[in-house]
Structures are given as C-alpha cells and as structure tokens.
Design goal:
Layout: E1 7-14, H1 18-29, E2 34-37, E3 54-55, H2 66-85, E4 89-90, E5 94-98, H3 104-116, E6 127-130, H4 131-137, E7 145-149, E8 153-155, H5 157-170, E9 174-176, E10 181-186, E11 192-196, E12 199-208, H6 214-221, E13 230-239, E14 248-251, E15 263-266, E16 272-275, E17 279-281, H7 298-305, E18 317-327, E19 339-341, H8 343-346, E20 351-355, H9 361-382
Parallel strand pairs: 1-2, 1-12, 2-9, 5-14, 12-20
Antiparallel strand pairs: 3-8, 4-8, 5-7, 6-7, 10-11, 11-12, 13-16, 13-17, 13-18, 15-16, 19-20
Amino acid sequence: MATSAAARVQTVVAGAGVVGLACARALAASGREVLVLEAEPHVGSGVSSRNSGVIHAGIYYPRGSLKGRACVDGRRRLYRFCEAHGVPHRRVGKLVVATHASQLPALDALREKAEACGVTGDDERLRPLDAAGVAALEPEVRCVGGVLSPSTGIVDAHELMLALQGEAEASGATVACAGAVERAEALPGGGVAIEAGGMALHAAELVNCAGLDAPRLVSGLRPGAVVAHHFAKGNYFSLAGRSPFGRLVYPLPDAQTAGLGVHATVDLAGRCRFGPDVEWLDGPALDASAFTVDASRAESFYAAVRTYWPGLADGALAPDYAGVRPKLSARGEAAADFLLQRSGDHGCRGLVQLLGIESPGLTASLALADLVVDALDEDAAAR
C-alpha cells in the first residue's frame, strides 16, 4: 500500500460504537489529533445498536480478568459520567435467583466471585435473600432464594454514545461516518497505512474497535496470523404491557451455554424484554437473518421465563430484536476474556486492538478507553 501521498493523522479509531467513542473521547482529551472512522451512516449502528442498556455490576468474571477489572471500574465511572452529563439512567438493581434447592450453593459461589472481582462497597455488595425476601421485592418471581445486586442499572445507550461523541468532538476529535476502513497495513517503522472511504491515510496510531469487523482488520494488519473469532446471535422477545418487575431478574448462569440465561430486562420507559438466548452462527458472513428474530424460538423462551415467572401468559411474548456478539471462545468452550492487544503482543508500534468486546463492553467502555491511552502513551515514550 503506497503511503507517500497519504494524508497524515496522528490517531485513527476504527469503529464508532460505545467503546470506540469512549476511546476517541479519552484520546482527544490526552491532546491527540483523533479521527474516528465508522462504516455505517451513523454512530452506534453496529454491535452497540443492539445493546440491552444494562450497566453491569461485575459479578460474573474470574478474579483478575480484564472483563472483571474493566467492568467494576467502568461501572463506577459510567454512573459518574451519566450524572455529570445528564444521560438518562437508573440504578434499578438486579435479582439473581435460584429456582431449585440444588442451585443455592451457586448463589454463595456468585457472592464470592463478586467479592473477588472487587464488588465490595456497601452500595455494591451482593445481598443474600431467601424466597420471602425475593418475594418482598418482586412478588411475581418464584424461587427458593436469590441475591440482590444493588449497583446494577440501566442506561439509554444511544444518549450515552451521543454524549461521548460530543465530548470527543469538543476536544477536537473528528467523527467520519460512512467511512469504512477497507484496508489497513502495519508499516515497518511503526504506524499504519489505511484506506477508508476513498482516502489514503498514514496514522501514527490505530485503535481497532471495529466490533464484528475487527477480525477482518486483524487479518489485514497481521498477515498469516490467525485470530479465532466466533459469532453468537442473541434473540430478545418483548412483553406486552408494562413490566411486572421493577428490577432486572436473572436466573443463575447455565455453565453449558455462553450466556447468562434468558433474563428479564426493563428499560427506562418501563418496558420488559426477555433474552438473550445463544444461537451460534456458522461462518464469518452475516446477512439480514442474523439480526432477525425467528418467532419459532418463542417456545423455548416461555419455558425459560416460567422457571422464575410462572405467571407468564400464553401469547404475551412477541419477537423484538436480535444482535450478534463477537466471541473469542467457540461453542462449548469456557467464556474468553476481553483481549486488548498492545504493541508487545503483535509487534506493531502504535496499534492497539480490542477484540472479543461483547458484554459487559458498554459498562467497561470508559475503563477500556483509559487502558488504550496508557498503551499508546507507552509506545510514544519508547519512540
């Protein structure tokens, strides 16, 4: 790829989802010249457009994992950011419930995992509840016990992204939509040559936040290297009328699946959705069917939801929306951690890659952005 006539820019962020915009905000605030390239006509039109808007507490992840650290730190920062910028949000809390006595030990294990992840503050710590305690909070829920996560919340994801974009642009960043990165090539002396939207660019720094498209950029930047990515579709069904719950309601995670179980989420308007399930997709090509809910999956949703809400009436669920998550673990494998690749991992100075960024990516976005700035600062200091 020729670079002699390429326009020079200090930092390019590929992808204007919630993580890409958080990175652009932090990078621009550090004094960098930042150009964000988004393939779609509008920001937040990729993975982030199918986000359920949950602010996660950080209770499920292994001790020391990037997911756990970034989720807990990011959640605290996110609440502060939303309060300071008027982003609609609510700390509604979440119940995780056991529906059989055999699951009760798993609730204790979940509390231990949460503490190991640093969820230890008085307003964060998981609170054990017996069946009566759960019923006092959510009378419609049937279970034998549960835990309350008081720091779980919900946020208007679109308004959050607009606020991040506004702050990034106020610090000098430029966001260019309909400008997909068509090709990127690591240069021997550092930096990256980029072709995007008919432009040729030479960037000293590139942050790959391209979501479902990130694997394609990886293959271009690292010829011959294999970064295994897998795509898992999640379907949601909506409930007619207002939510019977004031909080989020989750079953205990099923170790045999790659998700947290079909759970109840509420939005800021009081609507209730159930999901997601996990539907593995074959191959890297995603067509319109990947983002369409198959109504025949309703049967399994009724069965799953009725394990903790037996009052769900026949015919009350309707197909709502579907999204696709980029995963680094395959079907049947243990969930993989987020992957933040620095120059020491791939040998290209000025390149940071965020791979496998699925849930809790929104919650972790502000913390991940600071880690990206740190990684690029280290490269700059070594020049």
